[in-house]
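2024-03-11 09:14:02 INFO receiving multi-entity request
2024-03-11 09:14:02 INFO entity count = two
2024-03-11 09:14:03 INFO echoing inputs for audit
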Amino acid sequence: MTKLLEVKNLSKHFSVGKNRTLKAVQDISFSIDRGETLGLVGESGCGKTTCGRTVLKLYEPTSGQILFKGQDISALTGRDLMSFKKSAQIIFQDPYSSLDPRMTIGEIVAEGIGVHFKYSEREKQAKVLEILAKVGLRDEYASRFAHELSGGQRQRVGIARALAVDPEFIVCDEPISALDVSIQAQIVNLLIKLQREQNLTYLFISHDLSMVRHISDRVGIMYLGSLVEVGTSDQIFSHALHPYTKALISAIPVADPDFEGRDSRIKLEGEVPSPMNPPSGCKFRTRCSYASDICSKEMPILEEIEPGRSVSCHHWRDIAQS
Amino acid sequence: MDNILKVENLQVSFNTYAGEVKAVRGVDFELRRGETLAFVGESGCGKTVTAKALMRLLQPPFAEIKPQSKIAFNDEDVLSMGKKRLRQYRGDDVSMIFQDPMTSLNPTMTCGRQIMETLILHKGITKAQAREEAIKTLELVKIPDPEKRIDAYPHQLSGGMRQRVMIAIALACSPQILIADEPTTALDVTIQAQILDLLQELQDRLETSIILVTHDLGVVANFADRIQVMYAGQVIERGTVEEIFHQARHPYTWALLSSVPKPGRETKKELYSLMGTPPDLILPLTSCPFAPRCEFCMNICKERMPKETTLSDEHRVSCWLQHPMAPKVETFYERQA
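2024-03-11 09:21:47 INFO inference complete, emitting structure
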């Protein structure tokens, strides 16, 4: 398969006040193949969203390279930049605040079409209705306003807006976390269906591990701005190597009162340290049960242990054996 | 076990411009000492309104608890409590943890003052004593460095820490009932696990009864003793955790159970999703509220309200499928197998 997106040593720092920087994303590398879904998981504040926005050029990266179809997007200008923006879209987390309350649904969906295509008014309307039908909204919704819709319907509009310009790559930034369980399933089913029909590529950002497992081909786990482990869904969820991944997975509440693994759950003490002042060496060492001397001195690198599978931990070999 | 709280025919309505919204429509249940009872259901099914009614936190004239409703705390009528007794009741007897720790603390007061406020009002102790007590409570909820954190403002704490402060405020006067309204929904999984462990530990130690309001079946399976599933302001099925997870009889409960992705199942396969939305609560209900979304809907479901059928000591369900004349249908469990 061909690589659609390749991210190399990407960092994004924000300056906050005098001489202080927040290192939101630090030196991460990954790639996504065409038609694939990469899930990006981590606790709040770990840099998932920043990462998603930076690869879309919504933020300028501090350093590193982002290649989209082999082309470095930081160098794009003019027509090339427009064409990139047409191919790469985003679905936002909160369907309540990400739709303009003064525009009708039809106008919201048509806006991107107007920018990227030279359609007549009639063609544009036809396209809007076609897209709305694709996400399961009837024609009459085109003339309604966002406040008239339920959460699930609004998120469908968010998806329609992204789809309207025929993108190849969509960043789904927590698209389901604001929705009810039964509605979450509808939206995930819709995303999977659309991917199948149009060979879309997703970067699926979420903190809901069971949904990520369901939708993703491969999964990356982030902690404090760094990628700590990458692998296929199965490798990550059944044979995690990084202690943080293990802890994260064992913290998922299982909907079964007889579940036996409950007592052997790995309990993480404390909270994520401040990204303004991360620990030296391995950032996870303050909460890690495997931490030793080397962890505080040396920062582990993300090493590829087999094709498509990487982990960033000094002790992964011991963990793999145990 | 003895009942600490008994609710009979609880009916709550909201008066809006569009008309009377009947949010809770005749809920009965009892809460026993030391147990955890979970309210489960989609948003807008009346879980939180029921919980707030127990604390009498609903403001008249916008919200109205109907006169037929009865809430008894240790045989005392909660709905007829006077102002003074009510103030005591909230905090001393029953207290509540709210859903969103980010917005439910007062941003202009230090955490310590918010805990001390409760203590001074309820126990009539001095400021200095209250401060000491507050530090002890912060220790109880495992906030590191309580002597320092007591002077922190909410914005200086993380989400998990704020939720611990909320729990500390709720537990300050050691209430007999703790109502936890989606206590972990706004938190990350690892922090969620910590908070649930903390609640469990405190319950074991203080013998508090907990009412847990949540839509997360994973949390319920871990934590509750009994479950009541709510839909359109009614309890449609209730039972012990095992009964609800392994022998549920109501199609709505099945739908909730099926919409959770199971670990180990094939990925990218279509997830079960419940079509449609819950009914508009302004409209009167004369038939089964779930009928329009139910795949097993029969003619009678659209005409008459089902009665509650008793299946065991705890397990009761309101569904026409339990009627002896009803056809046998393929249950959620048979479908899974």
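2024-03-11 09:21:48 INFO post-check: Chain A touches chain B at residues 43-44, 150, 180-186, 188-189, 192, 207, 209-211, 213-216, 233, 237, 247-248, 251-259, 262, 265, 267-268, 270-272 (CB under 8 Å).
2024-03-11 09:21:48 INFO post-check: The radius of gyration of chain A is 21 Å.
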